[in-house]
Amino acid sequence: MTNILRDEPWGLQVLECAIFKCCPHGRVNRIAWHQGGVLALTYLAYTCYHMTRKPISVVKNVLSLNCSSLSPPDNIVINSTNRDTWCDWAPFDTAEAPALLGMLDSAFLFAYAAAMFLSGFIAERVNLRYFLTFGMLASGISCYLFGIAKPYNIHSLWYFVLVQAAGGIFQTSGWPGVVTVVGNWFGKGKRGLIFGIWNSHTSLGNILGTLLAAEFVESDWGLSFMVPGATMGLTGFMIFLFLAPNPMDIGCIPSIPPRYRKFDANNTSDEDNDVDDYENCNNDIEDRLIYRCVYREQVDVEDVACLRSETSPILGRHRRVQEHHTGNAIGFIGAMGIPGVIEYSLSLFFAKLVSYTFLYWLPLYIAASTTYSATLSADVSILFDVGGIAGAIAAGILSDYNGMSALTCALMLGFAVPALFLYDYIGSSGLGINIMLLLISGLLVNGPYALITTVVSAELGTHPSLGNSSRALATVTAIIDGTGSIGAAIGPLLAGLVSRWAGWHNVFYMLMIADMLALLFLSRLVYRDIQVYRQRWRVV
Asked: Within 13 Å of residue 84, how many CA atoms lie on the same side as its CB?
């Protein structure tokens, strides 16, 4: 039989040899095994993407610090001009430090937002294993380059800005890549639960990045970047060795319902007779083909003859599968015309503005509003991401249960507003209250963000209006996440300016308004969800 393996990674071939050929007495479901491997690899990959984004928020506390309460070393002369800044890292040793640190965030996030649209266009047209490998290696190098400023005594602002911008560009390889890979391997059944659990990699990456950075921030902040950067590079090499982006890459034909056309009793043409022949042949052969793929066994000679029969439409089906796998990718205009893409994109703009403001400024806010040290502030801030893990899972489960993604997002955004208000006014009154409100805020803020960037993007990327010959998952994901990333770039920038000139209370008012605007842009989709639910209830 002809070998239909496409581009199976080298490391995966070795593992398959060890598991499937060297264990003849056991039976392993090959598809389930590969699905588990894909989930694990993409989870690990995107954990590393977020792990390398987080150190800057932790290191801000030592790049610009009030040094008046610290004891200077003997080789530093203290006078009236440097009493509060002698321990800072130039060029962040001036009164303009918050604005300069905000510039670093903006360099990363604006570069990320601008490059995301191009990244989705590229991801739809290349092998995602190579795409993710290159992106992870380059992102790891960018993070590492920021860290070497410490041992090499680099103080140029433009060096930091350029390194951050390069990191933002290369980081765009992550989201379109991993979402498309997971979408290729999993259908719509319980997609919300799968994506909800899987999407915890975002929060886990933030947590690990925070803990790693906090481990070195007060002793050698350069290692806060170098260790995550090196880890990401090694993980990128693992992706190259083991990731199969599509079932076709390991010789599996994606499952397609056998009755791909409706039978017309009034039509007795030869073509319909061929369909009947196909059904008779396909009832057995498709099961055997799937079985062969699952357990890596050979198909009988009769099956091969039936598969290659000139009169059997299975050849047409096989061609359609190939076309679906390698078909023309949709353009940006076509993707934006998919119902719901624009509304979800604009909603994510404001939802991600809130989430990324917390991502980049929360450790500094906790240190400024309490008496906690830089390390303790960083450790406490991870609770926001712990709540985010629970929020992503809860949003996914609710979406699976009610089938109304827009309504689920709207409810969580609505409750996020009073949660942010309470955290602003009473969060700093005690450690226990701070922890509780951070968990609640993380759940409500990150739940809608996670649902839109995963389940909703996957559903819209395979929308029925696309037809069978277009591929749009990476493009739709890039449009939605790219628009959201513009908000993510604006949020931390505004937070730095507002906190300096108007105080932290006004930063939280800004975040509450952003959540209300995110809810507003979902209003039409919420109304549609409610109407569909009413119709479904009337039918029942």
From this structure: 7
Tokens of 266: 């009034």
Q: Measured on CA atoms in the order 227, 230, 232, 238, is the torsion positive or negative?
A: negative
Cα separations (Å) of 355 from 177, 340, 384?
21, 22, 10
Angle at 180 between CA 175 and CA 183, to 5 degrees: 125
Higher per-residue confidence, 432 vs 282: 432
Q: What pTM did the predictor assign?
A: 0.74
E strand or H helix at 293: helix 270-295
Q: What's the rounded Cα separation, in Å, for the pair 385 and 47? A: 12
Cα dihedral 26, 31, 37, 43, rounded to 10, equals -150
Evaluated on CA atoms 184, 185, 187, 188, the torsion sign reads negative
Supply the pLDDT for residue 316: 37
pLDDT exceeds 70 at position 493: yes
Cα–Cα dist 116/136, whole Å: 15
Which residues are CB-contacts of 534 (< 8 A; sequence separation ≥ 6)?
A: none
* 8 Å CB contact between 60 and 328: no
In the 3-class helix/strand/coil scheme, how is 298-322 assigned residue by residue? CCCHHHHHHHCCCCCCHHHHHHHHH
Alpha-helical (H) ranges within 4-29 are 10-16
User: Which structure tokens are listed for 273?
Assistant: 């007779």
Query: 80: Cβ–Cβ under 8 A, 6 or more apart, which residues?
Result: none
Give me Rg for the CA atoms of the chain: 26
**Rounded to an integer, what distance in angstroms lies between the CA atom of residue 478 and that of residue 173?**
10
Backbone angles phi, psi at 24, to 5 degrees: -65, -20
Instruction: Say which residue, 36 or 287, is predicted with more confidence.
Output: 36
The two structure tokens encoding residue 171: 């980081």
Rank 109-113, 182-186, 346-350, 449-453 by mean pLDDT and report only the highest.
346-350
Length of the chain: 540
Contacts of 38 (CB under 8 A, 6+ apart): 181, 182, 185, 243, 244
Contact yes or no for 427/504 (Cβ under 8 A): no
Q: Both ends of the chain: CA-CA distance in Å?
A: 50
Of 97, 446, 95, 53, residue with least CA distance to 232: 53
Q: Residue 238 corresponds to which tokens in the numbers above?
A: 């693992």
Q: CA of 462: how far to CAs of 52, 171, 179, 339, in Å?
A: 31, 24, 12, 12
